[in-house]
Amino acid sequence: MIQCHLSTLMGTRKMKIIDVARETGLNRSTVRALYYEDWVRVERDSIEKICRLFNCQVQDLFEWVPDD
Known about the structure:
Structural class: mainly alpha
């Protein structure tokens, strides 16, 4: 399973979904899906915008966790 740590990154900056959407130019539903880990696929451009906003690496945003 791949986990998304967007909610953690947002929490450290006390940002809301709408804040991330505004600052990245991403659709609010895209940010919401990542926040709640209810996504199927993510565009590379979206990942780049989020990493740029939080000044982080891809591995800070996503983590692979083996299924039990």
